[in-house]
């Protein structure tokens, strides 16, 4: 798909008819790996949940209060994390600037954007969920304490076509000097 079309057709989808294969998931992860990162630190980590049984467990136990449990039915789930205290830090452990671990989160966002754009390119859809039970995810998926859990991304075939939302005009989001 042409890049501009990928940008314009990417949508958040809240209803899925099917998840993805391991091969498709690996293709998404390869796209994520191409993103830049602070000093090439590559601290993003992905916990990919493909089995329907495990997806249901995560939906019920880790997404209930967020209202997203029903929105991720029939989709695969990707739990995104980053290894903290690396991106934005010196070898001695001191932060390079006031953002500190913000750089790890920033880098993960760049990776996730690549991932969701690649999903669109493959005819798949995504939903990024920031409201989640991080402690329960950590327990179920054995995520180390050295990683910060950021989001859960549902990915799969859309069950319905979403409407393109309004975008603010450039004048409202940018200042030119």
TrEMBL record:
Superkingdom field: Bacteria
Transmembrane helix in keyword set: no
InterPro entries: Nitroreductase, Nitroreductase-like
Pfam families given in the database record: Nitroreductase (PF00881)
Domain Nitroreductase: 8-157
Gene Ontology MF: a single term: oxidoreductase activity
Transmembrane helix found in the keyword field: no
Keyword list, A-Z: Oxidoreductase
Family in the record: Belongs to the nitroreductase family.
Name of the protein this chain belongs to: Nitroreductase family protein
Taxonomic classification: Bacteria, Bacillati, Bacillota, Clostridia, Lachnospirales
């Amino acid at each position: 798909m042409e890049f501009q079309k990928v940008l314009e057709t990417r949508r958040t989808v809240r209803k899925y008819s099917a998840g993805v294969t391991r091969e498709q998931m690996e293709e998404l992860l390869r796209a994520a790996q191409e993103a830049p990162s602070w000093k090439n630190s590559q601290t993003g980590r992905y916990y990919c949940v493909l089995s329907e049984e495990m997806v249901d467990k995560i939906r019920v136990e880790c997404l209930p209060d967020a209202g997203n449990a029903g929105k991720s039915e029939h989709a695969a789930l990707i739990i995104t994390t980053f290894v903290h205290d690396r991106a934005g830090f010196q070898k001695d452990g001191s932060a390079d600037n006031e953002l500190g671990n913000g750089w790890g989160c920033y880098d993960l966002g760049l990776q996730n954007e690549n991932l969701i754009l690649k999903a669109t390119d493959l005819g798949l859809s995504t939903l990024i969920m920031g409201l989640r039970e991080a402690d329960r995810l950590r327990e179920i998926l054995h995520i180390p304490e050295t990683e910060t859990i950021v989001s859960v991304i549902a990915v799969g075939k859309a069950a319905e076509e979403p409407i393109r939302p309004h975008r603010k005009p450039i004048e409202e989001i940018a200042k030119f000097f």
